[in-house]
Structure formats: C-alpha cells, structure tokens
Known about the structure:
Elements: H1 7-12, E1 14-15, E2 18-20, H2 22-25, H3 27-38, E3 43-47, E4 56-62, E5 65-71, E6 77-81, E7 96-98, E8 101-103, E9 110-112, E10 117-119, H4 130-133, E11 144-148, E12 151-155, H5 163-180, E13 187-198, H6 202-208, H7 215-218, H8 220-227, H9 238-244, H10 250-254, E14 258-260, E15 266-269, H11 280-293, H12 295-303, E16 306-311, E17 315-318, E18 323-331, E19 334-344, H13 349-362, H14 370-384, E20 391-393, H15 410-423
Antiparallel strand pairs: 1-2, 2-20, 3-12, 4-5, 4-7, 5-6, 8-9, 9-10, 11-12, 13-19, 14-15, 15-16, 16-17, 17-18, 18-19
Helix pairs in contact: 8-9, 9-13, 11-12
Amino acid sequence: MREEYGREAFSELVGRGRVHRRFYTDPAVFAEEQARIFRRVWLWLGHESQLKRPGDFFTARLAGERVIVARHADGAIHAFHNRCTHRGAEVCLAAAGNARSFVCPYHAWTYRTDGSLASVPLEQGYGAEFRGRMAGLRLEPVARVASYRGFLFGSHAAEGDDLETYLGPEVRAAFDNLVERAPEGEVELAGGKTVQRYRGNWKLQLENSIDLLHPRILHRSAIDAADRVDHGGGPPSIEWDIVKSNGLTLREWDGMRIAAMPRGHCWMAGFLTKAIDENPLQARYRKIMVERHGGKLASEILAFNRHNTIVYPNLFVNSRVAQIRVLQPVSVDCTEQHGYIFRLKGAPDEMFEASVRMVNTNNSPSSIVTSDDHEIFERIQRSLAGGRHEWVDLSRGLEEEEAAVGTNELPMRNQHRAWAQYME
C-alpha cells in the first residue's frame, strides 16, 4: 500500500481548487487516513459529566478502536483499550455504568478502573513469576487523554501538540461559549444520542457542514414543509426556525461569515431567523442570564452566533443549541454520525426539551433535513465510481480567499490542505 501511495502520490490527490475522486473512493487511501490522521490527532471521547463518581465509565470509539473511559477511586480519569491482555476479548460490553472493576467475559481476568490487572482465576497456573508480570498486563492505555472545559479528548499518538494548542483559540471559543451559556457555568451530557449511517465517505459530511450554497437548493422540500406549519398565532419553535432558516436567499447565504483556521478547523456563522427571539422561552432564559452575569456579559455570551464549528477531522460543535456531532468513519464508503446534546445547568427545563426536539427534527434518522444530505452523499459516492472525469471541482472563490464570503469553498479547501499535510 505504501509503495503505491508515497508522499508525492497523496499530495497529487489534492490540487488547486480540486481533489481527485480517489480522495473519496479508494480503500487504500481510507486505510492510510486512519493511520496518518485519525491515529495522530486529538479526537473527542465524551464529557466529564458522564463520570461523576469513582467507578463511573463509558465506552467509546477512538479512531475506530473501542476504548473504556473511567474515573478511578482517586478521581483521576483513565482511558484504555477495551481488549483483554490475556486472549484479546472485549472486556466491557456495556455502553456506560458504574463498576468497581471490569471482568473479562471469557476467562474472568479482572481489571481495576485505572486499567491495572487485579486478579486472574487459578493464578498459580501461570507460573511462579506471574505476580512480577502483572504490571505489564494492564489494559493498554490510550497514549494521551486531556480535557478542555470538561470535554474529553484522546489521542493514539504519544507525542504532538497539547490539546489546547491543537484546538486553537477560535475552536476553544466554541467550547467556552457552550459552557458559558449555562447560567450556573456547567453543562451535562444528557438525553442519549442519535446514530445515523450513510453509504458514503466521511469527508462528504465534513464538506457539507460548512457548505452555505446548498441549503436553499437541496433542502427545498424541508423549507416548503416549514412554510406550511401553523403556529396557531404563537411564536415559532426553535426546531421550526432552524428548518425554515435553510430558506434564506442565496444572496443572504453569500453574506454569512465563514472562517478557515490551521489544522483544518473552520466555522460558519449562525443563521437562525430573528423570529426565534420572539419566543417567550428565550426571554425567560435571557432574564436568568442577566440576573446571573449582568447585562453586558450576558449579552456578550448570547451574541456568540455560530452554527457549526468544525474540529478537524470529525467533530461539529453548535453551542447555541447545545449540540455536538461526531463522525465515525467505518469504511471508505460508509460513515456513522453520532449526535449528542447538553443540558445547561440553571437554564429552564424547556431549553433542554427544545434541544431534544431540534435534534430529532434536524439531526436524527427521522430528520427531513439530514435525510436530504445523506441521500446526496450516497448519490455522490455511487457516481464517483463511474465515468472518465477524475477530478471534483472546489474552485468557487479560489481567487478571493483573503476576503472569503459565505458561499466561498475556502473552508473545504482548508480541510483538504490539512488532509494533504497530515498524509505527508
């Protein structure tokens, strides 16, 4: 594989304002992405609110590998591979819970919540020196684990930028704002998660989430459905508003702010209509924020208005609706999207209920918006396999990158330049 794709070959897949179709379709390229990108960068694991007490744990995927994240008796958080060091069985089958130890279901090797090996059945059968070897038989730790404002990240790479450097100030601002929107300054991962799978490459979703030209065109049927909703004389709901907002004019989309940052990160401005501010729930929430922080600081926090902040290569943060989405690449032509929401401590309970409805309407298997996106990804994936044209065009705004506007394809090009750098 590495003989076929050397550094120069990978660079050649990303041209000026274009990418080669093998960028999306070649299984060998996908395999190298997992090694050169996903196993080197910081990837989101979960949130500290999932680990409130000693013994609390959850299982997650890190670059496709199953890991356990647990809070040990001393309060420290550990992450380790979910694979028994005896015969390789998956140790923990639960998604989350509280445990004093993890017991392998195959031969009952037992591990503490810091990953160390506690005991094995019939220990004498492993020889007199086994006690001396036990320290080396702990569950394999994830190379690095770090937290920013309670958001947990892991990396398979033992060396590299620390987490705060990797995120950079503009990405950290999105996490900061999500936490600061909680009147009590604390958020909690709650409400379960949504899981969707589409038959297409992971980079198609990454591009789409910063593509401001497509909403009015691709989501026309969803916009029409929103137009037919009768609010009964009351204010619109947030889930209606976010669907309806896809119907901004192309000129309005072109006027949106976008930003491209180092390491492939990028963000786009929020686009909810002004109608949402008329909702009495928003007025109650704003009053609580003002009482807690004062008018000036509350206004600054609530004025932070982004839709997606994309943490390359697979994380989307939307602080205004307290949502995070994560891409889990399965194969070159199969991707899962996992969606999570947060409860803002001190905010009205109805705020969380509105977030749940928003996710179900816009980012769930039943969404009339996301279904459009996933359908188009699958059509792209199929069509890229045929025909003679080798290149996909991403040249919109190529000559205007210094003063990029909303529909400029600069953020996608920024992602792809980062891809080429990692792959080299």
